[in-house]
Design a protein that fits this description.
Distance between the termini: 41 Å
Radius of gyration: 20 Å
Number of helices: 12
Number of strands: 12
Strand content: 15-25%
Bound molecules: adenosine monophosphate, manganese (II) ion
Shape: globular
CATH superfamily of the largest domain: inorganic pyrophosphatase (n-terminal core)
Largest sheet: 6 strands, parallel
Strand order of the largest sheet: 3-2-1-4-5-6
């Protein structure tokens, strides 16, 4: 059986990619793997389905990113590594273009069930807080020193997926890694400022308007916010991350689940679920074809907003009923 190490050592030209609208974990893990493969003497290109968001552009001072454009050829590659997701369907229109070249597909991921994805070779651990933490493990296993740029990428991965060390996945490995990364020179507060302190002037108004779209349901246990195309369009123009509404809604006493539904330009609805108590939101979205983690999961729903809203409310209700009296964590 080929080990993941053999896969990395045995190929020469790599293409790294991840899910649509790449987040901090996806991009940070790509940065770290790019530098690892370069240290091993490989040719590496990061090609994402979507451009890197403005708040992440500080990464480009040490790591080159590109995204797939329909009219431009892809760089040459023999091996593809999917990071922070395990299915080609999550790479949008890029997936079929990658398959055409018949590369070896590998997966580095921490989502539930990722060993059953599209990778013929996998490096997965659903107990890991972030994909970036898995790439850190690879550095250690291959005995490659961690360059500063990779340390910054891994730090970004950790803070992105643990909500700056606040969520229940912020375990001992996360804090130990963070300590080591800070010792290596990572400046956490500079990263924080780069990510969150360069917002467009309309973003405060957008946050207020998006929060206004929420309602409480199921006796105050579900907070659900629906953002229509007009608001999503305004958010896109201001490069505003609408996920900012999740936290204030999650802070309400009595809340078990927060649902954020966003109308996309292609007519689908992107649904993000966050749990605070014992509800397993990964199990809920799995019934609609989505995935993620027990306390944070997502799915793209091919139905109108009103239908998606009703379906999610019904599914959350069922899951609350099945749990009976729920404990809060
Ligand atoms: P999001 O709500 O998009 O922030 O996603 C929450 C978690 O669920 C993240 O770890 C995502 O990678 C994962 N996730 C989101 N959408 C999907 C999907 N369609 N299929 C599988 N996992 C998903
Ligand atoms: Mn992600
Ligand atoms: Mn992740």
């Amino acid at each position: 059986m080929t080990t993941f190490h053999d896969f990395l050592r045995g190929n020469q030209r790599f293409l790294l990619t991840g899910h649509e609208n790449p987040d901090g974990d996806c991009l940070g893990a790509e940065v770290a793997l790019w530098h690892l493969l370069r240290a091993l003497g490989k040719t590496v290109n990061i090609v994402n389905p979507d451009p890197i968001g403005r708040s992440f552009d500080f990464l480009q001072r040490h790591t080159p990113f590109s995204h797939a454009r329909p009219d431009e050829p892809l760089p040459d590659f023999d091996a593809v590594v999917l990071l922070d997701c395990c299915q080609l369907s999550r790479t949008g229109l890029l997936g079929p273009r990658l398959v055409q070249k018949k590369p070896t597909f590998a997966v580095i991921d921490h989502h539930v069930g990722s060993e059953r994805g599209d990778g013929s070779i996998c490096y997965v651990d659903s107990t890991a807080a972030a994909t970036g933490a898995l790439v850190r493990r690879l550095y250690r296993e291959l005995d490659v020193p961690l360059p500063m740029a990779a340390a910054e990428g891994i730090f970004l991965s950790l803070v992105a997926d643990t909500g700056w060390f606040r969520y229940s996945n912020a375990d001992q490995e996360v804090f130990a890694m963070a300590s080591e990364l800070v010792a290596a020179g990572v400046d956490g507060s500079r990263i924080y400022d780069a990510l969150y302190r360069r917002n467009h002037p309309d973003s405060a108004g957008l946050l207020a308007d998006a929060l206004h779209r929420h309602r409480l349901a199921l006796g105050g246990k579900l907070a659900i916010a629906c953002l229509d195309k007009a608001l999503m369009d305004r958010a896109a123009r201001a490069d505003f991350d609408t996920d900012a509404v999740l936290d204030p809604l999650r802070s309400l006493e009595g809340i078990e689940v927060v649902a954020l539904l966003k109308e996309r330009f292609d007519g689908t609805v992107k649904c993000s679920l966050r749990a605070r108590g014992d509800v397993d939101v990964q199990a809920i979205v799995a019934t609609f074809g989505g995935g993620g983690h027990k306390k944070a999961a997502g799915v793209t729903m091919r139905m109108p907003m009103a239908a998606a809203e009703a379906a999610i409310e019904a599914a959350v209700q069922q899951s609350l009923l099945a749990l009976g009296g729920t404990k809060r964590t």
